[in-house]
Structure prediction request, 269 residues.
Amino acid sequence: MPEKKEQKIVVLIENKESDNNLILHGIKLAAAFKKELCFLLVQNNKQISKLSESIIAGYKAVVKRDIPVLPVSDLILNGKPKDLIDPLVDEHEAILIILRNKLFKNWASAVRISPVPFLFVNENQNSVPDYKKVVLPLDLRKESKDSVLWASYFARFNNSGINVLAANDNIKDNIKSVQKNILMMKKLFTKFNIALKIFKGTSGSMKIQFEALELAKSSGAEMIIILGSSYISFIDIFIGLPENKIIRNAGTLPVLLINPRRDLYIMCD
Prediction:
C-alpha cells in the first residue's frame, strides 16, 4: 500500500540570506494549518550541486532541531516554473507556495495554470506577521468562491479576522452577481460560525482590488487575498496585469494570489 503523502506549505528558497524570512512565513502557516513544511529549490541545470544539497539540508535540520513537532522536507527540482506546477501539486501535494514578491514575473506563467495559491511576501520585511487581520476584495466573478474559501481557511485555522470590501457596481446584473457572492460568503462563514465584517467599497469590480489594497495598507492589515486575471489580453500583457501592480505596490503586505482560471485544490482538515 503506497504511503500517504501530507499536504505541504512550499517555500521557494534561493540560497540567499533572506531565505530565512521566507522560511519564517512558511513555519507560521505550516503550524497554523497543521501541514508539512517543504523547502523548494529550483535549478535550471540537471546536475544538483553539493552546495545546494548542503544548504537546503541545513535549513531542514534547523527546523527539525528547533521545532521537532513540525514535519519538514526538502525538494530540488529542475525546469521552468510552469512545468513544475503539476508535479508540485500532483506528486508532492503542495497546497500553498510562498515566494518573494519580486519573482512574480518569473512565475506568472505558473500562477496562471496553478490549482493552488501563491503567497507573495517581501523578503526584506523585518518581522513576520501573524496573519490575523486579512482584507478580501469581493467582485462580481463566480470564481470569488475560491478566494472566499481561502479566507475561511485563515479564519478557521489561524483565527484570522476577515474584512471584506465588496464592489460597488452600477450595472444591475453586476450588482446581482456581487450580492450573490456576498450571500455565498455569509452562508459559508455561518456554517463554520466565523465572524465576518463586510464593507461596501466605492469602486466597481474592475477597481475594487486596488481600493482594497489601500484599505489593507492604511488599516494595518497583515495580508490581502486577491483573484488573478480571469482573461488576459494583449493589452494586459503590454501594460501589466492588475495582480502584478498590486504585488509591486503592496510594500511589506503579503499578497495571497488565487488563480481563477483553474479549479482550486481543497485543503484537507
Summary: The chain is about 40% helix and 20% strand. The two ends are 23 Å apart (CA to CA). The first helix runs from residue 19 to 33.
